[in-house]
Specification:
Elements: H1 9-19, E1 24-28, E2 31-34, H2 35-52, E3 60-64, H3 69-80, E4 84-87, H4 94-103, E5 106-112, H5 113-118, H6 120-123, E6 130-133, H7 141-159, E7 170-171, E8 192-198, E9 206-211, H8 212-220, H9 222-226, H10 230-233, E10 237-240, H11 247-259, E11 263-266, H12 272-281, E12 284-289, H13 291-298, H14 301-304, E13 314-317, H15 324-336, E14 343-348, E15 355-358, E16 371-372, E17 377-381, E18 394-399, E19 406-407, H16 411-417, E20 418-419, E21 422-431, E22 437-442, E23 447-449, E24 452-454, H17 456-463, E25 469-479, E26 483-492, H18 497-511, E27 518-523, H19 537-547
Parallel strand pairs: 1-11, 3-4, 3-5, 4-8, 5-6, 6-7, 10-11, 10-12, 12-13, 13-14, 26-27
Antiparallel strand pairs: 1-2, 8-9, 9-19, 14-15, 15-16, 17-18, 18-21, 20-21, 21-22, 23-24, 25-26
Length: 549
């Protein structure tokens, strides 16, 4: 097994570059970046951060980027000099971005140009903190010219003028290293190095503090999960389409592959057509994704009939429960293509980075999340924290070196989540006699929409700001394309339903990411209440589930 103990994330990648300098570290848009070249780019950025921008150990740097090489360069450069990477969804609305920047005491924010373009005038108030990246910065020359030409033609048609860079903003491409080099802060690998944003074990949005060791611990076990020897994956690639602001995407499709000398194949936005093209251009041996992604691939004839399916070794599904029928169809498709690849489901949560239990070729059971990976212990407990018998339902808890340091500046909720060294996940399930873990339902209120965590409480609070809304409650409903979506029940002070719906949707579109937009709105005279006088969302969910069978 790879030994990454005592190392920062940067040092783990540096070891890989020394061991496999000319090997492929990153593949992006038809262009390969070797480990040696990637480290050089990271070192230049570390020089810029430290010597141009004055970033010091412990400072927070916000990175809100899609899966492009700049994301990795910024992430590892920040880690090298001992600063903290604050990874955020690149397309969250301005008000949320501003709140995160303020709440986490962010020194600088590296934002994607297309995000800034949506609310450029608002971002001017923060322009001294912002550095902008452009999609064309890392494209191969021909693609760069094509993209730049057609994108600006689109802007010219829309705005009536040719648009260059936004005036008053700093661009990453214009930053130049000083040539002085940068510090290599190796310090304590268990200090907080990463901030990720999730629903917490209670369902309310929280900021999670992770260390270098949290991610390195899981990365050491990548070959165990892949069921292969390290030398068998060198020169091959992992499709990295899951986002960097999510623990699953950041660790298992970016960091873990690269430190195991296995390329991260970056894809900013999932398209089945692009997956097929990437498979023709490079040797993709593994994919990590969410159920909706695999459904789309199986519905695309060119993927199903691709000769490159033979290169696939194993695929993993997370972010939401995978239907058993989906696994059957996937495995059968691979078998017909002459591939031994299977798709396996695992279990994890951002409080422990990502996957801590998984099905493998040697150990798998239908309907389960598999067994704990080496070094991780699971148990299922009752409300008093006592372990229940095998087969009995209780709260899933785990003990792992991947466990977070805690919630950012939130000691109270950290103590609720971590008790006596055990992480209480807020998920209900059971373990069988053979240690396989079975998930039943979420104790916490998080709805996974196409694998993206959506927080009903956040949507409710926003909708309740709309004039005329007295109360509301959001519940999960099934969706053929996204697997899940939100429906909101609304109590209004007046009943102009169409006008109210329009107001609600306009507000949601303005402030929420698209996955959080309600798909349905139902008006009621009143909502059911608990004995404490709170809206009983569980009863509404049960009613909706019953109605839809």
């Amino acid at each position: 097994m790879l030994d990454l103990s005592g190392k920062t994330l940067y040092e783990a990648l540096l070891d890989a570059s020394k061991d496999f300098p000319n090997g492929k570290a990153v593949f992006y848009q038809g262009k390969s970046i070797s480990f040696k070249s990637l480290i050089k780019r990271i070192d230049r950025m570390a020089d810029i951060l430290e010597n141009r921008l004055g970033v010091k150990k412990g400072d927070t740097i916000l990175i809100a980027q899609p899966n492009i090489p700049e994301t990795l360069v910024l992430f590892y450069a920040t880690n090298k000099i001992g600063a903290i990477s604050n990874l955020v969804h690149p397309f969250i609305p301005f008000n949320q971005m501003r709140n995160i920047i303020s709440r986490t005491n962010t020194k600088y924010a590296f934002l994607f140009e297309q995000r800034v373009a949506k609310e450029v005038e608002k971002y001017r108030d923060l322009s001294d903190k912002i550095f902008v990246t452009r999609i064309e910065d890392s494209l191969p020359l021909v693609k760069k010219v094509i993209y730049h030409t057609f994108y600006n033609m689109h802007i010219r048609r829309k705005l009536g003028k040719w648009r260059g860079k936004f005036k008053g903003f700093n661009y990453v491409k214009d930053l130049k290293p000083t040539g002085k080099g940068s510090s290599l802060v190796n310090g304590n690998e268990k200090e907080t190095a990463i901030l990720l944003h999730s629903g917490s074990t209670t369902g309310d949005p929280k900021t999670i503090c992770l260390s270098s060791w949290n991610m390195n611990f899981l990365s050491e076990r990548a070959c165990e999960m892949l069921a292969c020897k390290p030398e068998e994956i060198r020169g091959k690639g992992m499709l990295s389409v899951l986002p960097s602001f999510h623990g699953f995407g950041l660790c298992m499709t970016m960091h873990a592959p690269m430190v195991n000398r296995f390329a991260a194949v970056l894809m900013p936005k999932f398209k089945a057509k692009e997956v097929v093209k990437y498979m023709r251009q490079t040797n993709i041996a593994s994919i990590c994704g969410v159920p909706t992604m695999y459904e789309n691939l199986l519905s695309y004839d060119k993927f199903v009939n691709s000769k490159k399916l033979k290169n696939l070794h194993v695929c993993f599904c997370g972010g939401d429960t995978m239907p058993v029928e989906l696994k059957h169809r996937w495995d059968e498709t691979m078998k017909k293509a002459g591939s031994s690849c299977q798709i396996f489901e695992g279990y994890g949560l951002t409080e422990a980075v990502c996957v801590n239990a998984v099905n493998t070729f040697d150990n798998n059971r239908e309907g389960s999340f598999g067994k704990a990976i080496s070094g991780v212990t699971f148990r299922v407990v009752d409300q008093q924290g006592n372990e229940v018998k095998r087969g009995e339902i209780g709260e899933i808890t785990l003990k792992s070196e991947a466990m977070m340091n805690g919630y950012y500046k939130d000691e109270e909720n950290t103590k609720l989540a971590i008790k006596d060294g055990w992480l209480y996940t807020g998920d209900l399930g059971y373990m069988d006699e053979d240690d396989f873990i079975f998930f039943k339902q979420r104790k916490k209120r998080v709805v996974k929409v196409s694998g993206v965590g959506v927080f009903p409480t956040e949507v409710e609070r926003l909708v309740e700001t709309v004039p005329g809304v007295k109360a509301c409650c959001a519940v999960r409903i099934p969706d053929k394309r996204l697997q899940s979506a939100l429906k909101i029940f609304v109590v209004a002070s007046y009943f102009d339903e169409e006008g109210m719906k329009e107001q609600i949707m306009d507000t949601c579109r303005k402030y929420l990411i698209r996955w959080a937009l309600p798909k349905e709105i139902e008006f009621r005279k009143e909502l059911p209440l608990t004995q404490l006088g709170k809206v009983d969302f569980r009863k509404l969910q049960e009613e909706e589930d019953s109605k839809r069978k």
